[in-house]
Amino acid sequence: MPMFENFTKTVIKTSGAEIVTVKGGDGPPLLLMHGNPFNHLSWHKIAPRLAKEFTVVCTDLRGYGDSSKPPGGGDHSNYSFRAMAQDQIEVMETLGFTKFYAAGHDRGARVLHRMCLDHPTKVLKAGFMDMLPQHYLLNNVTRQWGKFSWHWFFMVQDYPTPETMMGADPEFFIRRKLSKTDQGTSFFGPEALQDYIRCIRNPEVIHAMCEDYRATFGIDLDMDTADYDAGKRVTTPSLILWGAKGGVGRNHNAAEVWNRYATNIVRTATVPSGHYLQEECPDETYEALSSFFRP
């Protein structure tokens, strides 16, 4: 693993999946969770630097990368953020960490949000990267957000429509999805980008990604609505970090939105990037995470 030198790679079996895991460094445990359509390689520009201060753990979420792909269908609960969060809790417990720091980008931040609600004593500090809670987004759909985040409404369609269309040209789909600015995919590490393309060529990965989005519109939103209506909020000390040039930064007041869902926001900050913070602005993203999690 040239991008994760001195990290060890294992596959950890949880109660619901087999999770690809890389671990490196020494210090307080820090779990990093990627977004869509990535895998653990999305952290390759900053994980080795963070490993100088922390024991860094990066995983492939269930359904993504080379982690296992549980059956979908039904209520899509196998791809709920609750199920994904449970995987990550069990991975960390297997590694000997009953409490830890955690950061998530995009879908990984949604897993972290659910983790903080379901397991509030496990996560010591939480870093939410370029994500607004889906409870807010799906109850406040705008024309601008719908156009920018078109893949949400495409991938949530019933099987097999999106799977068939994505599978017809997976590389076109992923490159198009990732080209949110005039830079296209130029700032992605070439090896990492090729691995993302390798993974999405697997029909099982495509199906799992769609199941992830189907769960978001159904069982995840139901859970979030019940918690929100009951007054349940994230109480974990939190960092809200977003890209100033991305959809969150340009289309929303992220700090104001998050104040409705978290009661212990320690810091809000931006980096001069679009949506893909750790790929486009690794130095600034590293500094923001390191300074927040540093004991």
UniProtKB/TrEMBL annotation:
The UniProt record lists the keyword Hydrolase: yes
Keywords: Hydrolase
Pfam families: Abhydrolase_1
Entry GO MF terms: haloacetate dehalogenase activity
InterPro entries (UniProt xref): AB_hydrolase_1, AB_hydrolase_fold
Organism superkingdom: Bacteria
Domain named AB hydrolase-1: residues: 28-280
UniProt-listed Enzyme Commission number(s): 3.8.1.3
Top EC class of this enzyme: hydrolase
Name by which UniProt lists this protein: Fluoroacetate dehalogenase
Organism of origin: Paraburkholderia humisilvae
Gene: fac-dex
